[in-house]
Amino acid sequence: MSDERVASGSPYEQTVGFSRAVRTGRHVYVSGTAPIWPDGHVDPDPLVQARRCWEIALDALARLGGSAGDAVRTRTYLTDRRYEGPASQAHGEVFADVRPASTMLVVVGMLDPRWVVEVELDAVLPDPPDQPGQTTASTGA
Known about the structure:
The protein has 3 helices and 6 strands, in the order βαββαβαββ. By secondary structure, it is of the alpha+beta class. A hairpin with a 2-residue loop joins strand 2 and strand 3. Helix 2 packs parallel to helix 3.
């Protein structure tokens, strides 16, 4: 089984040498995702940043066959405790019904000082449907 990788166009992907997300089997790992718009702009509003982070992360997950409902763990990094409310709101908008394991941390700073929020997620995709002609072992009782 080979790994699948997706890029998001971040200028750091090439220079640092990482993928936005990697799928290995049913597991998907989405790298730290910052709130950058395609033109390089970063909105200063923490809620807008958090929503943008999840938009990018979920797009990478979708490109590897997953959705928010497949998330099993999320991490949110904040540069200040006062951003907890907006970050929590954005997380709840996406994951209220999913309820993955989640961690929120306050860190000293981000790579770019305009970023006040960064996120990561891990997902486990559903088992593929049985192929015609395949049999499934039963543990029947």
